[in-house]
Amino acid sequence: MSTDVFPVFKGLTFSVVKTPTWGTRMQRAVSGRELRVSDYANPIWNFTLTYSVLHDATFGTTYVSPYTELRTLMNFVNIHRGAWDTFLFDDITDDTVVGGAIATADGVNSGYGLVRALIPGGFKEQMFAPHTVSAVYLNGVPTSAYTLDSNTGVITFTSPPSAGVAITADFTYYFRVRFAADRLDFEEFYHNFWEVKQLKLVSVVL
Predict the structure, then answer these.
(1) CA of 47: how far to CAs of 62, 143, 153, 202, in Å?
(2) Residue 7 covered by a domain
(3) pLDDT profile of the chain (206 residues), mean per 10
(4) Total domain count for the chain?
(5) Residue 72 belongs to what domain range?
(6) CB crowding 42-55: b at 16 or more within 10 Å, else e
(7) pTM (two decimals)
(8) Is residue 1 one of the residues assigned to a domain?
């Protein structure tokens, strides 16, 4: 399981498409009534990125790295063998929680998964790929008596917090993703200038 972070390039253009996807099984009876079963506890996120310019040369002092954006991205695709391997993606529009409500302790469990809600009081989604956890609070009081599993996003306290205690946290996170396909089209529209019209990523639950 790779800890590589998807590289950031200047050529990323808008619009960026972000799609929450759910899995619902449906069966319809002859009467027209439906039976529906939701298979997912959390949505699968699909990201579609467009790169209008990826350089394949060094121009003046602007691009000081010997590796250009084009070759860096191609190399990243090849290292992860297309859709085979997972990696981390930083969605800069959705990567930070401040004072987020994690759970209300039950007095028995010591482990609680990091979650985030898009709006206060909204749907809580477990975040499986934490980046940094800067603070954890019990009823608003900071505590350091915990460990973090960076592969699951679960915080485990040294001893179970008392029942009714509000657990909150400040943290940042990644999305664990893979390439949606085993191929990616790169197009040279001018000498040393390339573009990627659609780069698709899909989140992965481990």
Answers:
(1) 28, 35, 21, 6
(2) no
(3) 85 82 93 92 95 76 64 94 96 94 96 95 94 96 95 95 97 97 93 89 92
(4) 2
(5) 12-89+177-203
(6) beebbbebbbebbb
(7) 0.87
(8) no
